[in-house]
Design a protein that fits this description.
The protein has 153 residues and is of the alpha+beta class. The chain has helices at 63-73, 81-101, 108-122, 124-134, 140-152; strands at residues 11-19, 24-31, 37-43, 50-52, 58-60, 105-107.
């Protein structure tokens, strides 16, 4: 690992910790030349996951799209950052498990259903916001039906 301060490659790890429910390894490093410390973050690569779109088109899995969708659903809500981080890391691990059970392929339906499950336990408002886009509600009656369905859980 190259030192960001002096660009030396003579660095060593002085501490490692798991963060984000074990999805990320935070490594504290020290440069042996300039003696400054810096942190690096190591996480699982999702390059092996392919998403099958409704149209049949395939594309690489991009966790940033999921994070953006969740953030949109949760917009304006007061939510502790740990709860959001836990939701995202738990969801990501479930999606990775589903993909590994299907030869590295996830359908957009599977992704959407897993996001709904995650939001259902966190916020009914966020659930309805996401569902209204994901399920493509065409009128208020469909939204009311979804809200009534939430009350049954």
């Amino acid at each position: 690992m190259k030192c960001p301060f002096c660009t030396s490659q003579n660095t060593s790890v002085v501490d490692s910790r798991l963060i984000s429910n074990g999805l990320i390894v935070r490594r504290r490093r020290e440069c042996m030349d300039c003696h400054r410390r810096f942190s690096t973050h190591e996480m699982l690569s999702y390059d092996t996951i392919t998403v099958m779109k409704k149209s049949g088109k395939k594309e690489k899995f991009q966790s940033s799209k999921i994070e953006r969708s969740i953030n949109t659903a949760l917009a304006g809500m007061v939510l502790d950052s740990k709860a959001k981080e836990d939701l995202f890391s738990d969801l990501t691990m479930r999606l990775y498990k589903i993909a590994s059970d299907h030869n590295g392929v996830l359908s957009t339906r599977e992704i959407g259903d897993e996001i709904l499950q995650s939001l259902k336990g966190l916020s009914e408002v966020a659930y309805i916001r996401f569902a209204s886009v994901y399920k493509d509600f065409s009128d208020v009656k469909e939204i009311i039906k979804a809200i009534k369905g939430l009350k049954k859980w």
